Amino acid sequence: MINHLMSAGRGSDMQDSLGLMQFHDQYLYSGGAAGGNLALAHSFLPHHQAGFVHADDRCTGKEDMPVFDEPGAEAGEQDLAACKEVSQGGDGAVEERTGAAATARAEDAEVEARGVRMIALLMECAVAVSVGNLADANGMLLELSQMASPYAASCGERLVAYFARAMAARLMSSWIGICAPAAPPPCAAIHAAFRAFYNVAPFARFAYLACNQAILEAFHGKRLVHIVDLDVVPGGALQWLSLLPALAARPGGPPVLRVTGFGMSASVLHDAGNQLAGLANKLNMPFEFYAIAKRPGDVDEAADVPTKRPGEAVAVHWLRHAMYDAAGDDGATVRLMRWLEPKVLTLVEQERGGAPGDGGAAAGHGNFLDRFVSALHHYSALFDSLGASRPADEDASRHLVEHGVLGREIGNVLAVGGPSRSGREKVSCWQAELGRHGFLRAGGGGRAQLVAGACPAGLGYTVADDHDGTVRLGWKGTPVYAVSTLTWCPSPHAQR
After folding, report:
1. Is 248 exposed, middle or buried (0-12, 13-18, 19+ CB in 10 A)?
2. Cα-atom radius of gyration of the chain, to the nearest Å?
3. Do residues 47 and 293 touch, judged by C-beta distance below 8 A?
4. Which of 29, 174, 288, 323 shows a CA-CA span of 20 to 30 A to 452?
5. DSSP-assigned beta bridge partners for residue 349
6. Is 315 helix (H, G, I), strand (E, B) or coil?
7. Model-level pTM?
8. Cβ distance 408 to 185 under 8 Å?
9. DSSP code of 37?
10. Residue 319, φ and ψ in degrees, nearest 5
11. Nearest to residue 345, comparing CAs of 322, 320, 324, 371?
12. pLDDT tens, 66-112?
């Protein structure tokens, strides 16, 4: 774990560009005037510099010299003296370089020791919180607040700063005896932070690639297709802007596409629908977009969701995160997904411990100490990957990701926690819950190989395939995100 916290590297710098268009309808969108483009990712290799020391001075002479004077003898003695000075100067340079190297090693050792001390203090604080020793925990947090800064050069120190902040919020709620989910920030801020995450780290792009491939396979040969995105706010139209051209290029021409987007921001939904409508217009693809400014667990299926068309293939996509409660009531969300009867369900979850395949959900709702340890392991890998992608001390995009996405998730995971504190029962393992309601895992179909081929080489990103419909994205062997593919297959034993 310390290796994750203290390491740093260089990586890739990705940016995208999306066109902005005027929206023309409050509910149904079927065309536009412009489209959006996604820029290609460019990898940057580290540049290494090496210094060379040249020594090309040579001295020759004899100890026995003639008794007569020779014009060149004095010059030869001067050359010999100069040679000795060069030799002595070279020894001094070597000593200076050796001293500098020793100083650098000492500084590195000091930084590592300081990092180990911060992690140990953070762990001691978590133990104190877990047993209700709030006074000692408060003292440790005061010390950590003096040691760690979210603007530090070390990714480990920045991680500790955000964990200390989350622990302070947890401590305050324990003191006053009130705990409620943190109020979501403005949706525009979430969208901007997630967009930066999409650009800085490739995890979201990898997840989108795997999900889109599964949806393409499910829509093969279908004329009427319908995509239901259960939370549009974080990514907006990013994922679907890359799927539409693939649908339009398939043999037999483009399908008739409907997209239904859920989310707590009408403006983000409008922007997403506008961009997709403009791109569909360029591709000559029949297109409709339905905006539902609610959480999926808060809707009435018959009243809020568009009527299903006969023969229509439905794909449901859900990017699960911990920035805010995007689902609402989990039971109602399951009922909605069952009502839609999708041909494919793509589920992106964070890997924060727990049982294999549960996306870390169990760790998100277990006891505090288990939740703390699993979250520390998960986010240390993420901070390390961001530090490798953006090693500069003053990187605005990386700070936006750490503050607006990861820091907020850490706060919600630690400060809010399970149903005993939030007052609402939440599903601990979504794959198992969906399996009880008629969903079966679908095979990977080579999606892991597709994602692995898109990974930047030599940076530390890993891809694993469980051969049961789950592709795991990781950093240096640590699973970070899981992309699961399921299909609706009702049986007499499924719960209704």
Report:
1. middle
2. 29
3. no
4. 323
5. 482
6. strand
7. 0.76
8. yes
9. B
10. -95, 105
11. 320
12. 333 444 444 444 544 544 444 445 555 556 667 777 777 777 777 77
